[in-house]
Amino acid sequence: MATYAIGDVQGCMTTLERLLVRIQYDRKQDRLWLAGDLVNRGPRSLDVLRWAVAQGERLTSVLGNHDLHLLLAAAGLRQRKPRDTLDDILAAPDRDDLLAWVRRQPLVHRQSPYLLVHGGLWPTWTCDDAVQLSREVSEYLRSDRGFLAALADRSGSLPPWDETATGVERARAAAAIMTTLRMLDKRGEPLKFSGPPADAPRGAVAWYDAPRRRSSDATVLFGHWAAHDFQLALPRFIALDSGCVWGRALTAVRLDDAAVFQEPAADGASED
Known about the structure:
Blueprint: E1 3-6, H1 13-22, E2 31-34, H2 45-54, E3 59-61, H3 65-74, H4 87-90, H5 95-103, E4 108-111, E5 114-117, H6 127-143, H7 146-153, H8 167-180, E6 183-184, E7 190-191, E8 205-206, E9 219-222, E10 231-233, E11 237-239, E12 249-254, E13 259-264
Parallel strand pairs: 1-2, 2-3, 5-9, 9-11
Antiparallel strand pairs: 1-12, 4-5, 6-7, 6-8, 10-11, 12-13
Helix pairs in contact: 6-8
């Protein structure tokens, strides 16, 4: 039995199928961890979701910003973008079941020594904090239909973490950070930046390099940052997004021995 962590699929089902052959995935024994953004921009988002649901307990996925975008679009709370590839999901006869599955996915998954998240972690959070915040967001997603409206209301906004925030505002901010954070500016505030770390403004740092980051006792696995590209920086982190939907590759890491497998993109490129 092996556990494989896989980067952002984003509807690239053909590449995923080939990667699963490459790693010789055994559905009866192996486990898969997905770093979020299962859907959007690639051509087969519906196929990816149906496949993920069919894996049952063999698959663990965290929510990415594109997965939340799907929920918001389905609820009529966010206008779809020209490059979105969500129409097949929204028109599918099993749409409601698929959307319900997405709603049930957490923002983080922790299994020592690893913690899986799509975007990043705020420097003051411990791993326990991240797990607790993920639970709070999951509870809102499952039980409070108005929570999606709160997410949509602050769409694109990523203010610094407010330790005094409570309720919906605390959960909304946690969801935004865990699905979109990449870098902090020289003042320690979120920086809207998607390029390579080497091109960031002076004084900016990747979230995982923040001074005194309290989650440093775990190896954090994350996606979301295609321009960062894949990086195996054990024991600190594994950056899993190797830009499959940009026409590069889809990456899997076997966590048992840190073996790396990469499958060239086969679904066509898309600009972010």
